[in-house]
Amino acid sequence: MTQPDKKWQPLNVVVITIDTLRADHLGCYGYPKIATPNLDRLASQGVLFENAVAQTPLTPPSHASMFTGTNPNVHQVRGTGGFVLDASKVTLAEVLQQRGWQTAAFVGAPVLKRTFGLNQGFETYDDRMPEPDPSKTSLENPSLRAGTVVDRAVEWLDRHAGPKPFLLWVHVYDPHAPLDPPSPFRERYAGRPYDGEIAYVDQEIGRLFENIAKKSSPQQTVVVVMSDHGESLSEHGEYSHGVFLYDATLHIPWIMTGPGLPAAQRVKEQARTIDLLPTLLGVIGGEVPAASQGSSLLPALAGKPVETTYSYAETLYPKINMGWAELRGIRSSKWKYIRAPRSELYDLETDPGEVSNVLESHRDEAKRLEGELARLTATGEGKPAERVDMKSINAETEKQLRSLGYVSAGATKNLELTGKGIDPKDRVHILELIDEASTPQKNLPGPQRLRALEQALKEDPANPLLYYFLGEAYEKNNRDAEALKLYETAVKKKVTTNNRVFVRMALIYGRQGRIDEGIAAFEGALDADPTDTETQNRLAVAYLMRGRFPEAERLLQGVLVLHEEDAQAHNSLGWLAMRKADSAGAIRHFERALTLNPELMEVYVNLGMLYKRNGDLAQARTNFEAFLARAPVGKYRDSIQRVQQELQGLGRPGS
Ligand SMILES: [Zn+2]
Description:
Layout: E1 12-18, H1 37-45, E2 47-53, H2 59-68, H3 72-75, H4 92-98, E3 102-106, E4 124-126, H5 146-160, E5 166-172, H6 185-188, H7 193-215, E6 221-226, H8 247-250, E7 251-252, E8 254-257, E9 265-272, H9 276-284, H10 298-301, E10 311-315, H11 317-322, E11 327-331, E12 335-339, E13 344-347, H12 363-377, E14 386-390, H13 395-403, E15 413-417, H14 428-438, H15 446-459, H16 464-476, H17 480-492, H18 500-511, H19 515-528, H20 533-545, H21 549-562, H22 567-579, H23 583-596, H24 601-613, H25 617-630, H26 633-649
Parallel strand pairs: 1-5, 1-6, 2-9, 3-4, 3-5
Antiparallel strand pairs: 2-7, 2-8, 6-8, 10-11, 11-12, 12-13, 14-15
Helix pairs in contact: 5-7, 14-15, 15-16, 16-17, 17-18, 18-19, 19-20, 20-21, 21-22, 22-23, 22-24, 23-24, 24-25, 25-26
This protein binds zinc ion (ZN).
């Protein structure tokens, strides 16, 4: 079907997710110390849910809950990395695309890259991320500023808005650590960088709103602003999000405008991320997919009751990343029950900060909520532990990669959720040490930061994240040898859960000229995550250095299976084609690489060399000159000299 169904109102839908945004740090949620005029205005034009909560404090699982209307134990995206939304799940984008909507998404962080499956139903899914900059505070996974994400979305709006309605998802990551607001927000919120990032995001969203207004009138447009989770600002000894299930990280903002929605209405009923899908489809007039567990909140706007009594919550982060017990919980508007090695119960009405655990004095209430949790998850006393497959790849891609000869593609790790083990709340001193070491705001001298992490690892030696953080700290202090030893220990003891430790090992081996050991480490990284295209590209280059051309080629073909728009892979494949004297193939790959990324300098040199070899001196000159005009001197000093010589060798233009 290409045209929207008659029952379905062809409204333009804009979903903006602001990562890591606490509701209580917005003006419209009563925070006086910030200027968020654009979000405040949106709230005055529409509905604000005062008691909106996330199903999990983790980015990909929370977004999966919003877009499928299901809890994490149903959609099975249980963590950040290591999980892919299965193709069988039905997303908002798929529902609308099937009804004729144009769909586009612009995401601000690598944790939402298309390989994790949230791209389902999006015709455009822009997840281009900047190249990692080793001089920056974090060694990997650079994210985008809201300004860049909004620029891309605005450009899409300019190009694409036509007669068909559109679904536009814009994800901005800025309030997520590391906190570094741009000027003038840095100065305006000096000492409060979290607020500075939020105020900056508000400005950029205001710019997005202006551009949406040019394309779509308020009568045609539904706008939702929501966050995937909050941020603990030291409450309960947590300095980020992911470890606990308190409202510091589960309470989120949710603001919504659209035709038929009242202005300046504040809703007190509990609203869950799983309710987004049915609520949005309620406004549009479409049917809700059968799998959805959420409820439309539209009746609540007319003062009618809604079925949002129980909000499920879980986090597997402590289990997967820290080696502790996972947590599950259930929340009503009055109670929060957390199932932990030592379970907790809070009365949210009298104790919204969840400070006093009243489980002992409210045994019946706890028992009733435990019963609801057991019913929702089929877990609990007397039930078998839930088994979870960690797998970074979906079935279809796995099949394609296997056909290229990837034997390890689709390796599965099993996780057994017993709810037992170290209670995360008994390890808050470890969180404290991590925070001391990693928050630039604390301004600790380097050696003291290292000591904090060394101390933490001594106390908690089975905690994978500590190897990761301490190794990073060693590397930043130019102590590669110690970092490498630590990573090797993590691999030997099998405490590592993700591929980054292998990648970092490989990069250190590379710096030390130990190419073959680097290759082995990259291969280890790909065993852990066969979808990591950056590592595939790096490994391919290492294979090329060792003359292992067929292996490099197979790997690069695999990259294109995962992500056809990978400029680096096209460049390397072009080089391989050139080597086999396949000029047409080489030109095709190089041109594609440049279309995808005109800033990939190596391509100009490769194209120049290829044209020169083919006797097309004019084209050779054009590419060499393009390289010289663009290449930063600092990074390309040697290549610039070589290319200048090549240019001289071509003789005068026209001669
Ligand atoms: Zn997030």
